[in-house]
Specification:
This protein is of the alpha/beta class and 285 residues long. The chain folds into two domains: 198 residues, no CATH class; 65 residues, no CATH class. The chain is built from eleven helices and seven strands. Strands 2-1-4-3-5-6-7 form a seven-stranded mixed beta sheet, sandwiched between helices.
Amino acid sequence: MSRVSLDRVVLGAKPGGEGEHQSVYEIEKVNPTTSFSRTSNFNDVLALADAWDPERAVTKVKTSHAAVNGMLNDLTKASWLMGVHAEAAYPADQIEKYTLFHNPTEGGRADFLESVKDNRGSTTPLAEHLAAVLLDVQQRGEPVKWVVHSQGGIIFKQAVAHHLKHYPNHSLNKNSVVFHAGGNNKKKTNDLLGRAGIRKETEDNDNPFDMVPNLAGRNDLSLSSVKRSLQFAGKVMGSEGSSPTESPHTLPFISFEAYHGFLVMAKDYKSAARVQQYMDKHTAK
């Protein structure tokens, strides 16, 4: 697999986000006491950035857990953020190290166009590379549990489609996956995963106020979903000085109660009231 046997020249990151190479890294948890939970405060979340460290670039997945990050993530952010998502996806596992399939950022417009291309079925080099990594996992024979976030869900979906196009009878059942806030269409993805033998470890973990799975993934285009998504779109995009706990997209969705609490903590009582109204409506049955 030529995409797995990476040229040593491109192993490693360039500073500054834009211009980083797509590559694969082993990420180590360097602060085992730091985690994200329903009781986390702003300082706890800030500490997450120092809890995970890119140990080295690698050519193969040798850890039992792996991840694919979303758009606008440089290597530093992707390393800690996907560590947080891995722990949330597999809470019973003591994850001390995982492998990051790094989806480098080329800027908002380029990342968006890349997502559109994969979502429409035109395979990008990223998806081709990931398809080779998934096949290499299969050939090595050691199971790997993946978590994919945001654009990572789109890349993973298209990587499986690319594999099936070229190896329609070759299972990928040594790989399993959890989708967090994926921009992929669930119906299409589930069909592809079933054909490839890839098991979902849990159901998709999406916040109903998140525009990415709702609108970008075309999973819920109802009027109420569009309204919710647009009301919280600014939080998905983020603003200077805001905490990622306010976003329905960035950090793992723990529960409605936890998200409501984060909004109250941020003193965004209007958004908190909207979440409470949704909770009251959907738990009153």
